[in-house]
Amino acid sequence: MDLHPNEIRILKVLKEKSSTDEIAKAAQLDPDAVNRTISWLSTKGLVKLDEKVLEEVALGEEGRAYAEKGLPERRIVQLIGDGGNISNLSGRLDREEISIGLGWLRKKNLARMEDKGQIAVLNKGETEDERLLALLRDKNRVETSDLTPEQKKALDLLKSRRNVVDVLERKRVLVHPTEEGIRIGETMEVEEKISQLTPQIIRSGSWKQGSFRPYDHRIFVKPEYAAKKHPLRRLIDRISDIFIAMGFKEIKGPLIESAFWNFDALFVPQDHPARDMQDTFYLENPEEIEIPLLDEFKDRVKETHEKGWTTGSTGWGYQWSGEHCKPPLLRTHTTAVTCKYLTSLSKGDLPAKVFCIGKTFRNEAIDFKHLPEFYQVEGIVVDENANFRNLLGILDEFYREMGFKVRFRPSYYPYTEMSVDPEVYMEGKGWIELGGSGIFRPEVVKPLLGFECPVLAWGLGLDRVVALSLGLEDIRDLYISDLDWLRKSRVF
Ligand code: PHE
After folding, report:
1. 418 alpha carbon to ligand 1 midpoint, in Å?
2. In this predicted model, what pLDDT tens digit does every residue of 271-328 receive, in sequence order?
3. Distance from Cα 374 to the centre of ligand 1, integer Å
4. Could you list the mean pLDDT of each consecutive 10-residue stretch along the chain, which spans 492 residues?
5. CATH 3.30.930.10 residue spans of the chain
């Protein structure tokens, strides 16, 4: 067994039964070190601890004053000798002292009160409580279990007076060596080993001669929880690493968007139910925001919605309103960011691959799988040669990197054709739907990009996969910031 030098030192001085004070003295260690070391010795089975609560008495504030000048009853007797009159006392003792003193003279049967304030002293000898008072003054502290029966009675008397004695409880630990402890104490020598490498030891080079104490990694220590990122943040960083590794560039956009960039530019008709206040959070304040590039793109978007413009589409066949595109809202998807990005591209920039991770908002009733705000990972690939199989391949690769198996289901969005919803498989949960994807329709691409080109696009919800992969059944738990859960969450 490898022991700390202090452990050996203590085992060497241990008697059959030693108090920690005795050990500290004998081993020349400070009491804290002794306490720490004996608890190690005890976990290693080398000593047994016998803890006892001791009751001790010491003088209180009043008690110290009495021990100096005498109890009030003693001072009365000193003034009147064998007897006298109360009136003789006034002026020589204060009123309170006189009344306390007279009370105790009677109680202790030391004097008798007679007519007209006459006091007859019956006993002038020192009493047991006075002797105890003196003892406490001389010894500072006395263990109550060491007192004689008479002293205990006297103590009860003193306890019944205010602030005269204090009763204190103290824990005393008696240490007994076990057989192995005795054997080690007799045979092992204290050898100074280096247990902590300090700058001094390194600088002086003394480590070259010294020997090192090995660590015992089996000993239980209190866990330390290092500061770390929130699990959700960690996964977001990981996702962005995956896309970057796949050759994508990250783009960002504002949380507050206009209906124009959130809906109109994506060929979502102005009477589409998703635009409803039931689904979308519109801002009351401000009523209007500046809409970037509106003037440049609104005519094409209007034409496309109404009659299809030059896209080959028939459009939606309704009258597009330049007012309906204006209300500011909390973006309902990050597709607002990627579609606006299309306007910045020219032919020479292709192929372009970008992604965006950000908060999105929908007017949802809150439950275990819905929150009114959640993260999406959005991405597009703008490439003349891109096709539907590439889209499936990219999503498959992304989810595989994340550790999931993916499958696709046919779907519908006003802005894509084809449209598919990827689903991932989770043990015990089955297939989970995560968002949408598809190829942007010409009605989206041509007005914004200025020419036709396949644009692969997807927008995937993040929170649910993150929650489930962290073992949370309820996505609300992601945002509760339960400290215990956060501390114990694993970094992988
Ligand atoms: N915007 C869609 C959603 O929020 C997802 C999507 C993005 C679908 C891009 C198709 C193309 O559900």
Report:
1. 12
2. 999 999 889 999 999 999 999 999 999 999 999 999 999 999 999 999 999 999 999 9
3. 14
4. 88 88 92 92 93 92 94 93 87 90 94 90 93 95 93 95 93 91 92 86 90 81 88 93 97 97 98 92 94 97 98 97 96 98 97 98 93 96 98 96 94 97 92 94 98 97 88 90 88 70
5. 233-488
CA of 334 to the centre of ligand 1 (A): 8
Predicted pLDDT of residue 492: 64
491 token code pair: 């970094």
Q: Is the pTM of this model over 0.85?
A: no
Choosing from 266, 335, 460, 463 the residue with most ligand 1 atoms within 8 A of its CB, the one to mutate for a pocket test is 335
Q: What is the CATH number of domain 59-163?
A: 1.10.10
Backbone angles phi, psi at 88, to 5 degrees: -70, -20
Listed in sequence order, the residues at least 6 apart from 8 whose beta carbon sits closer than 8 Å to its beta carbon are 184, 185, 188, 189, 190
Phi/psi for 129 (5° steps) reads -65, -30
CA 182 to ligand 1 center in whole angstroms: 75
Spell out which residues line ligand 1, taking CB within 6 angstroms: 333, 335, 413, 416, 435-438, 457-459
CATH architecture of 233-488: 2-Layer Sandwich (3.30)
435 Cα nearest atom in ligand 1: 12
Q: How far is the CA of 436 from the centre of ligand 1 (A)?
A: 4
Atom 10 in ligand 1: which residue has the minimum CA distance? 437
Question: Where exactly does CATH 1.10.10 map onto the chain?
Answer: 59-163
β-strand partners of 359: 375
What is the position in ligand 1's atom list of the atom closest to the CA of 437? Answer: 10
Q: What is the pLDDT of residue 463?
A: 92
The pick from 275, 331, 333 for probing ligand 1's pocket by mutation, whose C-beta has the most ligand atoms within 8 angstroms, reads 333
Report whether 80 contacts 119 (CB < 8 A).
yes
Cβ atoms of 130 and 74 within 8 Å: the answer is yes
What percent helix, strand, coil does the chain show, rounded to 5? Answer: 40, 20, 35
CA of 438 to the centre of ligand 1 (A): 8
